[in-house]
Description:
This protein has 362 residues and is mostly helical. Helices cover 62% and strands 0% of the residues.
Amino acid sequence: MKEESYSNYLKLQNLLSSQDPVSKKHNNEEHDETLFIIVHQVFELWFKQIIHELLSIIDLLSTNKLDDRQLGKIVSRLDRIIKIQKILVDQFQVLETMTPMDFLEFRNLLSPASGFQSLQFRVIENLLGLPDQQRIKFSSNKYDSFLNEEEQKKLKNIIKSGSMFKLIDDWLNRTPFIVSEKFNFWEQYQQAVHKLIKKDNEKILVNPNLEEEEKNTRILENNKVLDSYKHLFDSDEHDKLLKSGSKRLSQQSTLAALFILLYRDEPMLHLPYKMITNLIDIDIFLTSWRHRHSLLARRMIGFKVGTGGSSGYNYLKKAVSRHSVFDDFLNLSSYLIPRTFLPKLPSELKSNLGYYFSHGDK
Length: 362
């Protein structure tokens, strides 16, 4: 058997010969086009690795019961995706060494090629769980209309794998409510919230540095905050938010995720907490990547139309705020309360959430 070489193992001959500047074909090769190609090829390689991680996570989440070992793998692979995303964001710094004038020297030769045609990026969006109705349309066309027929088929097939959002929602739905005949956690939580806001209002009323009008304004704001808790415990209110698209996470999943965030210090909740915060970080870094992309577009072409016919910067800017996936988890911070106000868990429940050793017969 022939020994494997470094070059052969990495297929370097194919990899290093895949940079073919369009400007070279026009007998006037532009120096910076090679940089432009390599940066985008590296983007696609990292996209491939992210897809590899997401598919493995989706496979693990598809089981009916997750144990700590599986959760540990999921958290580890989500961590890896976040590390890759940091590199993806930093990569724009390399591209920014190219000036707008240098880019203009070969930009017109690229049309109609565009980042809109990145199949792998669309796969990532779908595997994470970005819904079609949330997407910004371009000229009334669906996002996948920029892909060729074969790529559209590949996208449809991979979507069948499921999405992170749906599987996490299902997993949280299977998490039992903290309710028993002796202890109703959510009832005590609501009492703690009312107590916290009442205490805050009392401080506002006796604050000598506030004018009467400002006091009333702050108390009104506090009452609005209290009102925002309604959907947590009123299924009809939550259903309205689901139908309007303001929320995507089911009521039970929302409560389960909130409990995990509130009691994250309990040993059995360490991994679930880490998984939720990793999902939030992935969303944040994806938003950061979109933001850097939009700023780069503005820096390079201003308000010109993109090579694929899009509105360029304006489209990318809108996508920054609209194309997030895990907002429901990020927004749970609104319902966190200080540890001193948290309901005290019964010893039996606390024991179930902790790791302990039984000292039986050896």
